Amino acid sequence: GPAAPDADASLPGQGQPCRAADSACAAGLTCIDYYGVAGARGPRFTSCEIRCKPACPKGQTCITIADGPGQVCRAP
């Protein structure tokens, strides 16, 4: 049968674009899609992230990436 979702070590990590084929990310990350500075007229981007809500994991803080995925967790 199919492998477990986190069995593929080649999945993109935090802050990297989601896998193009299926928007997959490494375990614990969510694929967030967004538009950059050009807005909806520009290209759509994706990023594997941890959303700030309900809370960031230990060692990370909530930051806002204005021209990116918005409020996400990142290591300082």
What's the structural blueprint in terms of helices and strands?
Layout lengths: L29 E6 L8 E6 L11 E5 L4 E5 L2
Antiparallel strand pairs: 1-2, 3-4
What are the salient characteristics of this protein?
single chain, mainly beta, 76 residues, flat, disordered N terminus
Helix content: under 10%
Overall spatial form: flat
The counted number of beta strands is 4
Question: How is the biggest beta sheet arranged?
Answer: 2 strands, antiparallel
The strand order across the widest sheet is: 1-2
Structural notes for this entry:
There is one protein chain. This protein has 76 residues and is an all-beta fold. Helix content is 0%, strand content 29%. It is built from no helices and 4 strands. It has a two-stranded antiparallel ribbon with strand order 1-2. Strand 3 and strand 4 form a beta hairpin. The termini are far apart. The N terminus is likely disordered.
Q: Could you write a compact summary of the structure shown?
A:
By secondary structure, the protein is mainly beta. It has strands spanning 30-35, 44-49, 61-65, 70-74. A hairpin with an 8-residue loop joins strand 1 (30-35) and strand 2.
